[in-house]
Every structure is written in structure tokens, then in C-alpha cells.
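Hi Y.,

Following your request, here is the sequence exactly as I used it, all 148 residues.
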Amino acid sequence: MSNRMNRRRMLQNTALAGVGVWASGRIGLGEDKSPNEKLNIACIGVGGRGAGNLAGVASQNIVALCDVDHRRAAGSFKKYPKAKKYVDYRKMFDEIHGQIDAVVIATPNHVHAPASVTAMRMGKHCYCEQPLSHSVYEARVAAGVAAE
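Below is the corresponding structure, written out as C-alpha cells. Let me know if you'd prefer a different format.
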């Protein structure tokens, strides 16, 4: 018998290996995920469109919500009573930056670059609605921070 690998044998071995990996990953189905597997997320701008972005990360730990209009953000604040509430994102970063893994930014366009750059300089992962910047200068600052 030849030890040469043919196409049929390679496909059979690959399929068996894939089933083995798939089956081994299914063993812990009934176990809950560790709290360490969730991100601690802060959201800036949680009324209106920001509420939709907040719903997109609802499976994670929402630790802080920031919005200048508490009336418009009332629905989001009500859904996450344990999250700290802020009016100024800079104050939020000053107080709890060590507890945040990522930031979702859904503010008016003129706040996108300052809030994103502040978050990225603190080493936070950042999701920002478009546009990120209004000027070439803001874009270069944001690009420089992201490249660091």
C-alpha cells in the first residue's frame, strides 16, 4: 500500500479533524460564560440613534452611559439602572477609565473626533458612528492615535 496522500483521503482526514474540533467545543454547552468573557462598555450619546448602538452591545457589561440630554436618554438610562450616568464624557473618562474596555460613540458629528481620540489615547477600543472627523487635522490626529 502506498503512503501517498490522494485527494479523497485528504478530504476524509480533514472532515474527521473538523468533526473532532467541533465536537470538543460542544462539551461545555450547559455552562455559563465567565464574567471575564464580557467587555465593560461605556456609551456616549445613548438617546436616539445611540439607543440602537447600545442595543447592539446589550449582551456585554454596560458600565457607563453618557448623554447631555437626560430626557432623550431616559429610556436607555432606565434599561441599565446599574450603569453610572454622566453628562460629560470627559468626567466619565476621568472617574472610571480603569473600568472600561471599550467605548461606543453615537453623538452629534462634531463630538466624534474629540471623544474617539480621548478614548483611543486611553487605550480603549472604540466604535464611532461616521464621520469620525470634520477636518483633515482631526482625521490625522485620529489616525495617528490609532496607529500608536
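The CA atoms of residues 9 and 15 lie 10 Å apart.

Thanks again,
Q.
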